[in-house]
Amino acid sequence: MGFPEAVVSVFAGTFKFSGRAPRSEYWWFFLFEVIAVTVLAFVDASTIMQFSAQSQGKGNPVGMFNPFALTMVYYLLLTFFPRISVTVRRLHDVGASGWFCLLYFVPLVGGLIVFIMTLLPSQSVDNKFGPPPGGFGGPRRSKSGGGNHDPMQGYASLDRANQSTTAEMQAARKAEVRALYEQRVLGRGAPAK
Asked: Buried b vs exposed e over 82-100: b needs ≥16 C-beta within 10 Å?
């Protein structure tokens, strides 16, 4: 999942607290937040400096500044639920309960614990929060570990790509593809092996 897909996915799942979110979705959204907060911090700093310059000599203390004039306040309100929901789904992806988000309220160490948990790798098998999100490259396996996925299969195809093909190899591959098409799309015949 790339940057734009992750941001759209998080905002589309604003109130979705079930299921799982892969590391890519979570961290691309985190990058989006860092960029947005940095830009808004510069905008708000210029707003505060303008207010400060205008209020000098007029007797208006800076304490009378309206915090709702800052764009950061609106951004944080707008992204509160998407941020929480993607964190809950990310915790689900590592096999932890979404209630661990409450650790953010523990001073000093709570946020660090949640941060470390979001760095953990995704569970590649089904867990109590659902199947793994897409992007694992192979067929999804059940929690029992069934399936015969070979992780080296992708590398073997690279070796085959470098080989020169003969007419017999091309004909055999065409026959294999045709048999798979007939079986899966047309629903005829037995699986080709």
From this structure: bbbbbbbbbbbbbebebeb
- Cβ 121 vs Cβ 93: under 8 Å: no
Grouping H, G, I as helix, E, B as strand and the rest as coil, residue 151 is coil
Sequence-distant (6+) residues with CB within 8 A of 189 are 179, 182, 183
Q: What is the pLDDT of residues 150-183, one digit of tens each?
A: 555 555 566 666 667 788 888 888 898 888 888 8
The answer to whether residues 51 and 65 touch, using CB atoms and an 8 Å cutoff, is: yes
pLDDT < 50 stretches in the chain? 136-147, 192
Contact 130, 19 (CB under 8 A): yes
Q: Is 125 helix (H, G, I), strand (E, B) or coil?
A: strand
d(CA 129, CA 142): 13
CA 143/CA 146 separation, integer angstroms:
8
Residue 174 CA to chain centroid, in angstroms? 38
Sequence-ordered strand ranges (E) for the chain: none
Q: Provide the pLDDT for residue 81.
A: 93
Instruction: Collect all residues with Cβ–Cβ distance below 8 Å to 124 and sequence separation of at least 6.
Output: 132, 136, 141
Q: What's the pTM value of the predicted model, to 2 decimals?
A: 0.60
**131: Cβ contacts below 8 Å, ≥ 6 apart:** 20, 140
